[in-house]
Amino acid sequence: MNNPNQSHPEMRTKVEIFMIPKSASAFFCLVIIISLAFPSLALSQSVPEELTDQTRRAIIDSISLAIRDYYVIPAVADDMCESMMNKLNSGQYDSITKLADFTNQLTNDLREVSKDVHLKVQPIQVNNDESEVADSVEIQQQRSAEWRKANFGFRQIERLDGNIGYIDLSGFYDVQYAAPTAIAAMNFLANSDALIIDLRRNTGGNGNMSKLLSSYFFSEPTHLLDFYNRKGEIERQHWTEEYVPGPRLIDIPLYILVSHATLSAAEGFSYALKHLNRAKIIGETTRGGANPMESHNFPGLSISVNVPFVMGRSPITKTNWEGTGIEPDISVPASEALEVAHMEALKSLMNTTESEQEKRMLAMIAEEVEAKLNPVTLGEDDLKAYVGSYGQQGMQVTVRDGKLNVAGYILVPIGDDKFMAMNGEEQVQFDRSNTGDIAGMVVLFRDGRKVSFMRSDD
């Protein structure tokens, strides 16, 4: 491969390309490791604990080299480099003597100019005896072991009440390792009537995982995103896969939960499905990072810089979410997004089902979800009004630790004299007499059955 730094003959360069196969990565997972040796800093040296003007200048020169050669918007690259050099020459960095403090400041300065949250300068670890990056195979083995312990980002997979699937996904991991887990998750939820994908804690990762998951929601190959290089040319495209293992979920309502922390590939997934009218986005405006990056390592200086090298755009909107984030379809605090999505799914299913029994069941569940969003609070004196014996068997309703209890269930208030059984599927409606006293209770089952109990302790 041609030396990417051959236009800089004044520097001795060593280039090592460590790349996960293109079939498995290609988006956010490309890693280019570049080692540069400055005449003033041999590769076998590590940066001293106290930074000098010489090392600060060498670090900025190195970062500028990577940014000018690779950053996706050349004009912005020039602005960033000029800004750093002006601050260096004017002495604004003179008081910074710790490497971590310096890299943090440079990160802030680069982002201030570019507004690009993918740009980052950070310290790296190097071997004590030689400043070479550890073997890439060994690094990848360590990473894959860590990814496995994190279950490749799939934190939680379950069926919510109403036969609504739920996936809590904290990251998009390399499909080379994570595909079996992703496929298992999608197959487990294949019989769901609606699906919620929770990306509120997802800061991105591998774009091919986004492609794999998206493929389950379309019946035929669908154009998701384009990626433009710094010349303004389309470098590659993302389409859904022609084949996925297991059933596709092409007709069910789909909801994606996002927050201010949602970033990068997680935003790409959300943005594509939003503008294809395949998913409803619920939560907060996302962070706004649309440009995939590659990591340029400088072991001789103990630093690394992440440089965005392409720009993602929707083939529909012809733009992206860089710097602005994705505006949700329903804006709510991230802490409420799951309940709001659950309610939206229940309403959608109630509007489409022809079964009156199913409508009653979904309505009951909706009442309970609404109570989570807007809790009904009763004081202990209010709860004591329900205490007593009910039915011929003398079923006891009691108050313990400020909560109403019956038959081993905690009753949570959801409306006027109405409660849901926590960890159960029943509701309890208390009846009052003409004088306003509690006269009995009715247990309501989701299949429509009702069982009444007269109060028997009067």
Offer a few descriptive terms:
458 residues, alpha+beta, 2-enoyl-CoA Hydratase, Chain A, domain 1, Lipocalin, eight-stranded antiparallel beta sheet, six-stranded mixed beta sheet, 22 strands, elongated, disordered N terminus
List the helices and strands and how they pair.
Layout: E1 12-18, E2 31-37, H1 53-70, H2 74-89, H3 99-114, E3 120-123, H4 136-149, E4 154-160, E5 164-169, H5 175-188, E6 194-198, H6 207-215, E7 223-228, E8 234-239, E9 254-258, H7 265-275, E10 280-283, E11 293-298, E12 303-308, E13 311-313, E14 330-331, H8 337-352, H9 356-373, H10 380-384, E15 388-390, E16 395-400, E17 403-406, E18 409-415, E19 418-421, E20 427-432, E21 438-444, E22 450-454
Parallel strand pairs: 5-6, 6-9, 9-10, 10-14
Antiparallel strand pairs: 1-2, 3-12, 4-5, 7-8, 7-13, 11-12, 15-16, 16-17, 17-18, 18-19, 19-20, 20-21, 21-22
Helix pairs in contact: 1-2, 2-3, 5-6, 6-7, 8-9
Highest CATH level, the class of one domain: Alpha Beta
- Strands ordered across the widest β-sheet: 15-16-17-18-19-20-21-22
Whole-Å distance between the termini? Answer: 91 Å
Specify the helix fraction band. Answer: 25-40%
Q: Main β-sheet, in a few words?
A: 8 strands, antiparallel
The CATH topology of one domain, please? Answer: 2-enoyl-CoA Hydratase, Chain A, domain 1
Provide the gyration radius in Å: 29 Å
Q: Could you report the average pLDDT, rounded to the nearest whole number?
A: 87
Tally the beta strands.
22
The CATH superfamily of one domain is identified as 2-enoyl-CoA Hydratase, Chain A, domain 1
Tally of individual helices: 10
How much strand content do the residues show?
25-35%
Spans of 5+ residues with little confidence (pLDDT < 50)?
A: 1-45, 129-133
Tell me what the CATH architecture of one domain is. Answer: Alpha-Beta Complex
